[in-house]
Each structure stands twice: as structure tokens, then as C-alpha cells.
Amino acid sequence: MKSYTIKEIAAYLNAEVQGDDSVEITRVATLEKAQVGEISFLANPKYQSQLEGTAASAVLLSPQSAQGFVGNAIVLKDPYVGFARVAQLLDTTPRAAESIHPSAVIDASATLGEGVAIGANAVIGANVILGENVQIGAGCVIGQNVIIGSNSMLWANVTIYHDVHLGQSCIVHSSTVIGSDGFGYANERGQWIKIPQTGGVRIGDRVEIGACTSIDRGAIEHTEIHDGVIIDNQVQIAHNVIIGENTALAGSSTFAGSTTLGKYCIVGGNCAVAGHLSVADGTHISGGTNVTSVIREPGVYSSATIAMENKVWRRNTVRFRQLDELFQRVKKLEKNVKSDD
């Protein structure tokens, strides 16, 4: 188990110590559940009441919250960011693979960097290049001509199709599929004619992709996921979508083909973004929103209605269908009023 003194953690965070800096810390915990040897944080004022009663050996606090606190504190501007960094420092997550397992199938033409680990029953295809310290979990399948950058990690049962490039320090969680065919077809008198998807997928550095997510390959050009993007579980990204730097996509959201999402965007869960449109840098899209037109100006965009009793929802649905009729009546009344004037 990893252990650091409060003094060492404060130095790591470039923060100040209030109290005894020699205390050992081994884990992170919530204010309510923390015990001796654990460190917690206060970032939301609604949990202020838990601060005085916490049993944590140390708490990450803002300068304002630290005033009057009698316990051990590490004082810094943003306690939540501090918590994230301390959680990394004390992380006990195991590796996806420890060595090259005897049951792994590795094509003779593959290139493996120093420190590569490949789990049981994984398959590494022709001309694959794995950078230094790459971890490939059990049961993964890596298609031909794939490149995976140094220090990237794939958890068990990830499938990466041919001609996909994954950058450095990326994490891909279990059962995700990268590079499957995009949904491209032509219709000839009712019959669907498949369009071969000959583009690839290009994923930048420091990208994390959640479990059971699908990222389709491009039809001709590549699907692109730029540096620093974070993608939650069960997200669908269609062919030729471009996701800008440091954008965050929450679970169960879908992005139709040839959509371009800007840098530093945040997309809530269960959103749907229509194809062949663009979304401006810095846009926030609330959960459950359907985006059907171009967003040219950054801001917060929402379209989901609030939950209500079913009987109320049914009445409102009927009224919604009457909106056009109501509009026409109002328009006619306005015209009559103008005529009377």
C-alpha cells in the first residue's frame, strides 16, 4: 500500500500545510466516511457540516474553508483538483497486463516497444506497432497496421480494427470497439448497397474512452478524436466525426456522421447530435438534448423537457400538437386587429 506524509503530499501539490505535516496518508475518502490514515476534501459548500465531524487525518481545503478548522489541512486554491491529483498519487488500480502471456498470439511482423505487456488470449495483428510500456489486456484484438503510442493501456476485450492510430498515454476501457465500419449505404430501388469504409480512426494523446463505446472508422477520410478528449461509457461516434481537444462526452450520447465538435465542449448524458453539422468551441450541451442544427456561438444549450406526472404530460402532448393551429388563429386575429386600426 502506498503511503505519503501530509508534508510530501503538500509538496506534490505545491500547497500549504495547516497542522501536523508528519501524519501518514494511505487512501482518499469522503468527509463522512474517512478514517485515520485517509485524506478527504471539501469542494462543495453543501458538505460544510461534515467538515467538523470528519475523522480524516487530513482534508484538502480552500483558504476560506481552512479558517477556523482545527484538524490537519492541506490548503490550496482548488481542493477538487487537488483531490484528483492525490487520488492519482495513491492509486492502487492494477495493470491491464503484467507481462507477455504465453497464450497471446502476436504476428511476427508486429513491433513491440520496451516494457510492453500483453494479457492472455490477446491477438496482435500484422504490422502493429506498440510503443513503450503499452499494456494490452486479456482478450483484446488489435488489427493489422494499428499504431498504439507509448504508455497507453487497453483493458480486457477491447477490439481495435485495422489502420487505427491511438496516441500516447491513452486509456481504453473494456468492450470498446474502435474502427468498426461506419453506417454508410446507398439505396438502389429499395436495396441497400454497402459503401466500403476505407478511412481510419486517428486518436490523439491523453484520450480516455469508457467501456462499451463505439468509434466508427471514416468512409474515406479519418474519424478524429483530438488530444485530451474524455469519453464516457456507451457513447456512439459515427464515421468522420471530429472531436476537438479536451472535449468531454458523457454516457449514452450519440454523434451522427461528419459532425464536428469543437474544443473544450461538454456534452451531457443521453444527448444526440445530428450529422453534417458543427458545434462551436466551448459549447455546453445539457443532458438529454437533441442538437439538430449548427451551433455557431458558445453557450449552454438545452432542449429536454422536465419530468412531470404522466397525466400532465399527456395533456401537454396534445396541446403541443395544437401549436400550429393556435399560431394560425393568433396570426389571423392579429391581422384582423390591424385591419380594424
From TrEMBL:
UDP-3-O-[3-hydroxymyristoyl] glucosamine N-acyltransferase non-repeat region domain spans which residues? Answer: 23-89
Question: Any transmembrane segments, and where?
Answer: none
Q: A GO biological process this protein is involved in?
A: lipid A biosynthetic process
Region forming the signal peptide: none
A Pfam family found in this protein is LpxD
Report the catalytic activity. Answer: a UDP-3-O-[(3R)-3-hydroxyacyl]-alpha-D-glucosamine + a (3R)-hydroxyacyl-[ACP] = a UDP-2-N,3-O-bis[(3R)-3-hydroxyacyl]-alpha-D-glucosamine + holo-[ACP] + H(+)
Q: What is any one of the record's Gene Ontology cellular component terms?
A: membrane
Q: MF terms per GO, please?
A: N-acyltransferase activity; UDP-3-O-[(3R)-3-hydroxyacyl]-glucosamine N-acyltransferase activity
EC numbers on record = 2.3.1.191
> Pathway of this protein?
Bacterial outer membrane biogenesis; LPS lipid A biosynthesis
Question: What's in the keyword line of the UniProt record?
Answer: Acyltransferase, Lipid A biosynthesis, Lipid biosynthesis, Lipid metabolism, Repeat, Transferase
- Indicate yes or no for the key word RNA-binding: no
Q: Which residues form a coiled coil?
A: none
Q: So where's the catalytic machinery, residue-wise? A: H239
Q: What does this protein do?
A: Catalyzes the N-acylation of UDP-3-O-acylglucosamine using 3-hydroxyacyl-ACP as the acyl donor. Is involved in the biosynthesis of lipid A, a phosphorylated glycolipid that anchors the lipopolysaccharide to the outer membrane of the cell.
**Protein family:** Belongs to the transferase hexapeptide repeat family. LpxD subfamily.
Record note on quaternary structure: Homotrimer.
Q: What name does this protein carry? A: UDP-3-O-acylglucosamine N-acyltransferase
Task: Specify the species.
Answer: Shewanella colwelliana
- Gene symbol of the encoding locus: lpxD
